Amino acid sequence: MVRVGVDENLAPELLADFPAEAEIVRLPRTIPQPVPIDFWILPFYRKDAATAFQQLREVKVAQSLMAGVDWVLPWLPPAVTLCDGRGIHDISASEWVLAAIMATMKRIPLYRDLQNQQQWRGFASVTDGFLSEPGPARGQYTVLADDLSGKTVLIVGYGSIGAAIEARLAPFGVNILRIARSARPQPPVSAIADLHALLPLADIVVLIVPLTDATRGLIRAPELALMRPGALLVNAARGPVVDTDALVAALQQHRIRAAVDVTDPEPLPAGHPLWSAPNCLITPHIGGSTPQFIHRAFRFAAQQLRRYIAGQPLENIVTGAGY
Ligand SMILES: NC(=O)c1ccc[n+]([C@@H]2O[C@H](COP(=O)([O-])OP(=O)(O)OC[C@H]3O[C@@H](n4cnc5c(N)ncnc54)[C@H](OP(=O)(O)O)[C@@H]3O)[C@@H](O)[C@H]2O)c1
Hints:
By secondary structure, the chain is an alpha/beta fold. It is built from nine helices and 17 strands. The protein has a seven-stranded parallel sheet with strand order 12-11-10-13-14-15-16, with helices on both faces. Strands 2-1-4-6-7-17 form a six-stranded mixed sheet, covered by helices on one side. Strands 3-5 form a two-stranded parallel ribbon. Helix 4 links the parallel strand 10 and strand 11. The chain is elongated and about 65 Å long. The structure holds NADP nicotinamide-adenine-dinucleotide phosphate. NADP nicotinamide-adenine-dinucleotide phosphate binds next to helix 4 and strand 11. NADP nicotinamide-adenine-dinucleotide phosphate (NAP) binds next to helix 4 and strand 11.
């Protein structure tokens, strides 16, 4: 039997796919005494996970059900094989990115604000001051929203979710630019060294990189200054990938727009200037979280367990030897 540590409150139906060889060990939030397990399914983004780990013994594999493991790497010993949740967030996170882009193109946050004030007013008569674009009026015609079609979208972090974003953008007739750590052909992906060259070409810049030493502060004032006037910065990655002060300044100067699911700090405290920065849509790190996602996540965990039990190589190994 393989001892599998899961949160004590985990719904039993999520364990339906788990192999019979898995002995489920339910772990309370505060673990009172040392518990031996082989395979740990990490609690979601819980700050007390590091404390919980102190009470675990004999852990060989720690399986995160989140794509990003920046919150685990600082405290998990390298002897434990860490696997991330690459792939299981593709649908939910890419759909969030599409929703954020479309909401911004169609000015949905603005119109929702007006709805709350019971005001039937078009963008043209709303003096929010975002005048970096050519102007809401074109001759006799009043512009009330924007097309996504024809825009250039730069995906910074062309990995699992990045490719899912591209697939969902494809029917809209956009031009896609891609960046990863290193360049590759088919489809053409540029190296991160080309970031400064590509930023001025994009109407929409989507950040979907992991948070690492290399990506922390990837977007600061110089990068924001390279963005087109009125361009949209979408951060679905991690808050610290963007310098928050620089973002607030760029928004307050009405140079760019932003749609962010992640912030630095997180949660964003009441009174923080990002809350009220113009042309900024904020959601509280919900991009990956849907009811369907949790089932995908535990099906993936069950597959990993089966691989582990069969002595096959695990997928999504971030650190450690693997099995
Ligand atoms: N908002 C949310 O709720 C939410 C949900 C899910 C995920 N996320 C975030 O999204 C991140 C990406 O997830 P994923 O599943 O798509 O990961 P992934 O498949 O590992 O892809 C990551 C991509 O980022 C690129 N990258 C890594 N370091 C880079 C750097 N220094 N410069 C440029 N590109 C770099 C990688 O380049 P190579 O291909 O060259 O290696 C890869 O293309 C996660 O780590 C997480 O932080 C957020």
